[in-house]
Amino acid sequence: MSGANNNIVLYHYSFSPYARRIIWYLALRGIDYAECKQAPTLPRPDIKALGVNYRRIPILAIGRDIYCDTRIILRKLEQFFPDQALGSTDVEQQAIQKFLEIWTIEAGLFNRASQLIPSDMPLLKDPKFVKDREDLTSRPWSKEGIDKNRPEALAVVRSAFNLLESTLLADGRDWVLKTQKPTLADIEAVWIFDWLNGLKGALPRELVSEKQYPKVFAWIKRFNSVLRDAKAQAPKPASLKGDVAAQRILGSDFKEDHPSVDQTDPLGLKQGTEVEVYPTDSGTRHHDQGKLVGLSEDEIVLSIQSQGSELHLHYPRSGFRIEAIPAGGKARL
């Protein structure tokens, strides 16, 4: 792939658990990229300057194609960098990988894990952060609300630890798919458990520790050891300011040519229809509006105008809603 840093610009902030999925993948693959660091809360003028209203982190641009949501980002990186990709070519292993993705994201495991954030964290004393997370998740982030949800969330997370301990890792394998090194299936599975393990006060150690789940904690430790070695050998990402990142993106070519709209899609939308797209689980108040240029079983592609240039925004189909905009209508941003 031509272009500085493979034409990749990753927008993220350092402690985002979702962003780490992408950073880990890029490091394990040794893929060169550039990053544009963002604030953990809105506003994010660097992203707004691109004309993107989607509020979640990370987003990843490859040329003038911008990928929203880590599920589609990982899928595209596998596609565009096929040499020694981390995903399996075995259909049964692909199914395990996909089910792990669904389990941790779409089935709500991360939502429960996030309810284990300790209510005495310094960040939760910052009204700006609390308001931002309430906008993101549409649920209260007060100390009382967090403490009330904690027991039920802990029960769900303990069950998840037990599932891995007693099934996929029960036979003592090093990696989820019995491979010689971590694969995409390990990333799909480990990210929540690693995040909780590193979040002081999230897990009560008398209930969730190496004593109760030795195989899971050994796997987390193994993964981090391999990751440290990979990061030491991988290219260090170039750090870009927002204006430089935007210039690089807007001055690039599209990575993907000629997306198309499936004429058999149940929504019956036509190419070029004015639509708005937004996530249905979190960040639901932030909608992007543009022309529909791509629609398939797995993907939505939206064309928007930014600083006189066309950009394509890509979203996974699952977890996102797409609606036609009536003539003269406006997007709900």
UniProtKB/TrEMBL annotation:
InterPro entries in the record: DUF7962, Glutathione-S-Trfase_C-like, Glutathione-S-Trfase_C_sf, Glutathione_S-Trfase_N, GST_Omega/HSP26, Thioredoxin-like_sf
Residues in GST N-terminal domain copies: 6-85
A GO CC annotation given for this chain: cytoplasm
Lineage top rank: taxon: Eukaryota
Span of domain GST C-terminal: 103-244
PANTHER family xrefs: GLUTATHIONE S-TRANSFERASE OMEGA (PTHR43968:SF6), PTHR43968
Protein name: GST N-terminal domain-containing protein
Lineage of source species: Eukaryota, Fungi, Dikarya, Ascomycota, Pezizomycotina
